[in-house]
């Protein structure tokens, strides 16, 4: 690529060599220890460039192919990727595209001895941070690296206090946390989805702590835990005398969270009538307490969460489409614990140390066999269930090291434990629907009549529990 004398061409601006030296000096010490993943299928160039980067103080991991680079990325996320363009099997641009899928926002610089204007334009349009030609000028290379690290503070600033409550080494979870860190400063609404007990409120709080609102309130409420009128009063507040028992004015959670974040847990359980009022508050950025004629301006970031399929609920008419799109600007989807089995021993060790500090300081941890049993369990209750099992084990152990037998006992006890109200209700609904469908041999009209529901509502219930009436007709025929 051609450049003016004394200038270095980056993908978005030009700076002089003098400026580059000043920038390098300013960054030295706080960025020079960054982790760089270096990718090149030429072993000698890989070794030579790696030595050059290490002499500057960078921590360097090398890979001689795109596939090896992705394997390295799955183990540990670097702060920056420096890759050759022309490689067998997977070239630099294909590698970049896969990195964007697995680790959005991770800066990539591409090097090539076959540099051309079309290649550079294609690379930078796709989001590659910089495109440099070989042999690479030392100052140009280090300036591009320093600029890229400045553009990616989340990956290189080393400040993990915002996410300290989330214990993980799962690449899947790390990608979610990277996305949360990126969106934290954007001040857009975020929907956190995932199964019950997977840590949605922890992620919501971490997102708040990573945002410019971190020094303001984080207020949480479970939308499925309160009756409709009480939920409305809690969210929006009420004036004195607004309803029977309202003996004084009450400030709602929107006002309590002003300047900060409001976390609406289980938003999928919010009644439709309240969804309309919530949408109005989000659109107008002001809230009118129950029984009041005056609206109050509010500045609140909404983070919501649900274990339900809101897209399906929206299409079935259980959730307003306009509210869905306003809340779901960014979706962060937490995996169940069984999909991050590598985190189970790590979480168990952390939880046992916490429980021991509270109850039995002599408890030091789990035996190897006990950890293996924990890691191989299915965890239908996710992290919440793991917490319960660890608490039981600590409460019942009389030895410093918790044995496998005690873990097995706790797992059985947890399976027989009383379920939460929401889980019990869902289980009853599903069992009831199956029973009436068996009785009516899949006839929805008759089944709805027995249940005392209209056909539309009954179909919604079937959809919520993923039950297909036609399968019960087949069962009835085979039984006969």
Automatic annotation (TrEMBL):
Q: Does the keyword Transcription apply?
A: yes
Gene3D superfamilies listed in its UniProt record: 1.10.8.60, 3.40.50.2300, Homeodomain-like (1.10.10.60), P-loop containing nucleotide triphosphate hydrolases (3.40.50.300)
Response regulatory domain location is 35-149
Question: Looking at the record's lineage, which domain of life comes first?
Answer: Bacteria
SUPFAM superfamilies found in the cross-reference section: CheY-like, Homeodomain-like, P-loop containing nucleoside triphosphate hydrolases
Give GO terms for biological process.
phosphorelay signal transduction system; regulation of DNA-templated transcription
Q: Which residues form the Sigma-54 factor interaction domain?
A: 166-395
Please give the Gene Ontology molecular function terms for this protein. Answer: ATP binding; DNA binding
The UniProt keywords, alphabetically, are: ATP-binding, DNA-binding, Nucleotide-binding, Phosphoprotein, Transcription, Transcription regulation, Two-component regulatory system
Q: Which residues carry this modification: 4-aspartylphosphate?
A: 84
Q: What InterPro entries is this protein classified in?
A: AAA+_ATPase, AAA_lid_NorR, CheY-like_superfamily, Homeodomain-like_sf, P-loop_NTPase, Sig_transdc_resp-reg_receiver, Sigma_54_int, Sigma_54_int_dom_ATP-bd_2
Indicate what this protein is called per its UniProt record.
Answer: Two-component system, NtrC family, response regulator GlrR
Which taxonomic lineage is given here? Bacteria, Pseudomonadati, Pseudomonadota, Gammaproteobacteria, Oceanospirillales
């Amino acid at each position: 690529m051609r450049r003016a004398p004394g200038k270095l061409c980056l993908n978005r601006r030009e700076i002089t060599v003098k400026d580059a030296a000043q920038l390098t000096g300013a960054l030295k010490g706080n960025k020079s220890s960054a982790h760089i993943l270096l990718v090149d299928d030429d072993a000698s160039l890989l070794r030579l460039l790696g030595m050059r980067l290490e002499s500057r103080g960078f921590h360097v991991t090398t890979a001689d192919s795109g596939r090896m680079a992705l394997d390295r990325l799955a183990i540990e996320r670097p702060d920056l990727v420096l890759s050759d363009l022309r490689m067998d099997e997977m070239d630099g641009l294909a590698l970049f595209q896969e990195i964007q899928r697995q680790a959005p926002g991770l800066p990539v610089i591409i090097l090539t001895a076959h540099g051309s204007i079309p290649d550079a334009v294609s690379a930078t349009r796709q989001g590659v941070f910089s495109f440099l030609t070989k042999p690479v000028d030392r100052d140009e290379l280090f300036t591009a690296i320093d600029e890229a690290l400045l553009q990616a503070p989340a990956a290189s600033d080393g400040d993990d206090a915002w996410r300290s409550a989330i214990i993980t080494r799962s690449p899947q979870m790390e990608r979610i946390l990277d996305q949360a860190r990126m969106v934290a400063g954007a001040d857009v609404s975020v929907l956190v989805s995932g199964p019950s007990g997977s840590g949605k409120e922890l992620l919501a709080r971490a997102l708040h702590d990573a945002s410019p609102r971190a020094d303001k309130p984080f207020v949480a409420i479970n939308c499925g835990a309160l009756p409709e009128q009480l939920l409305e009063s809690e969210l929006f507040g009420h004036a004195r005398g607004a309803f029977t028992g309202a003996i004084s004015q009450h400030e709602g959670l929107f006002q309590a969270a002003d300047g900060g974040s409001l976390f609406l847990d289980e938003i999928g359980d919010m009644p439709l009538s309240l969804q309309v009022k919530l949408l109005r508050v989000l659109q107008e950025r002001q809230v009118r307490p129950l029984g009041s004629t005056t609206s109050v301006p509010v500045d609140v970031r909404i983070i919501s969460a649900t274990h339900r399929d809101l897209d399906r609920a929206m299409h079935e008419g259980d959730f307003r489409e306009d509210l869905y799109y306003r809340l779901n600007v960014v979706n962060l989807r937490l995996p169940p614990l069984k999909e991050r089995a590598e985190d189970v021993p790590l979480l168990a060790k952390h939880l046992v140390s916490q429980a021991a500090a509270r109850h039995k300081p002599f408890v030091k941890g789990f035996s190897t066999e006990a950890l293996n049993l924990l890691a191989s369990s299915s965890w239908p209750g996710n992290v919440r269930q793991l917490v319960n099992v660890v608490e039981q084990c600590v409460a019942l152990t009389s030895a410093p090291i918790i044995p496998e037998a005690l873990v097995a006992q706790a797992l059985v006890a947890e399976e027989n434990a009383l379920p939460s109200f929401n889980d019990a209700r869902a289980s009853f609904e599903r069992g009831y629907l199956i029973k009436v469908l068996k009785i009516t041999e899949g006839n929805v009209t008759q089944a709805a009549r027995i249940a005392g529901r209209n056909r539309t509502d009954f179909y919604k219930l079937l959809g919520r529990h993923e039950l297909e009436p036609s399968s019960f007709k087949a069962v009835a025929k085979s039984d006969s």
